[in-house]
Amino acid sequence: MEKKKYIVLLLQIAAVAAAGVIGGDTLFALVTALIGITFNFMVSMNFAPGFLFGFVYAVCNGILAWQTKVYATFVFMIFMQAPMALYSFWKWRGEKKQTETIMRKMNRRELSVTVLGAMVLFGIIAAVLSRVNGTLDINVFFDTFFFVCSAIACIGLAACYKNAYIVNLGSGIGGTILWVFKAVTMGTGISVAVFFLAVAINAAMAIRQQYGRE
């Protein structure tokens, strides 16, 4: 990556670290967020080794999600993102270290199937979590929204679809709202909230970079 991009990464790491210290996050939550922002930034810049950080982040965030009772996120991180991160590293590295040339847009059929699949998945996850939680509240809504966006983005990046960055923007926004809510109600996770804000920013940068070439 270019030096100026490393500077952006360092600024994001500093912002997440400061938020974690000021917010009184646990050391585990803070370290998870720092690993996560490194993963997200490197992948947004099309740097394949970022997925190795993604694997570690998925395991750590899965543990954190279990501890804070965000069960959909736990399932996603441990059973989808962790293995998909390793697969994505293998595929991206096998194709090209810098993947700009292999990223492509979904055609109309692929986009329609993705949207329909996301709607069905949202309904299923929301129904399951509502039953477990006893009600459909804001926590269930944003937990489900984050899960669906993250799952679609994870699969989309592995398949080298540009559209995945747009979905990742939604994941960043949903994750920010979810973890701000968690920070307010449970007293921890503000660094994770800042992390997801950075995810949204990185996704916006990636969208500009990918679609700006057209």
TrEMBL record:
Judging by the UniProt lineage, the source's domain of life is: Bacteria
Membrane topology field: Multi-pass membrane protein
Q: Does the keyword Transmembrane helix apply?
A: yes
**Which UniProt keywords are present, listed alphabetically?**
Membrane, Transmembrane, Transmembrane helix
- The transmembrane segments are 6-35, 47-64, 70-90, 111-132, 138-158, 165-181, 187-207
Annotated localization: Membrane
Q: In its UniProt entry, what is this protein called?
A: Nicotinamide mononucleotide transporter
- Organism of this sequence: Fusicatenibacter saccharivorans
